[in-house]
């Protein structure tokens, strides 16, 4: 049966010399046979593997596919070890190799770079520790800056993934991962490798230290992130820290300009419930804010607020003031007309 399989693949590969999937399936047959023979057919499997690596020299993704196939079966450890050893030697300066090595460590396949041996450890705590150490070892390598930044991002994403998993139920892992998170995010920031707003927000929401300090770091790095500014402003207002909130709001609208509407909405809602006098001042500022995307929304809202709190006479005066702001806002007129119609019907 095996010889028949080999013959089919040999024939197929004559006509499809560069068909990777066919080579992979041919290799997979040998891996399965290797397990059935308890390792006796290792020379054949090794020869096939070596030929494949030579044929697709420098193809890291193909190397990963062969590893993924070999790692499925437990009785082919020597073959697995050879594949991992070659991967580490050939692709030491690739961030993808370090990510792959970290992932197999996380799954319990521990590769010792000193002895170049591979063993399986079912203790997931050991897997997590080796996974983290692998990323940290990779970041010490002399990778090009762009590649190192990518590795930082792989590392950060993997930390988040681990912290979301069931493994965090164990207190020792929870403590270890909390310390790892603080250290890794801080170092990634210091190395100018933290470029995603969601990473800063995750860090801020999960830190035991100083949440606004982290968010401020985030808005310094990613100035145009609406999400970061929203999170910073919302944090201050949730603790009724109005002075700091207004400071964050002013910095945010200066930076975001025409994209700052979410910040206006948050502060308007907050002041409406707590500081009505300050709200009028905010409406005034928003009406004169030099971006139509903002003042077109604020002016009619200001009018609606005024008619409820100050009455129609005061609102008529306000309408004249708001009407003269350029560019002209049609919604302002329709809002005022609806108020006047209501007055006439009373």
TrEMBL record:
GO terms for cellular component: Pwp2p-containing subcomplex of 90S preribosome; small-subunit processome. GO terms for molecular function: snoRNA binding. It comes from Acyrthosiphon pisum. GO terms for biological process: maturation of SSU-rRNA from tricistronic rRNA transcript (SSU-rRNA, 5.8S rRNA, LSU-rRNA). It comes from the Eukaryota. This is Uncharacterized protein.
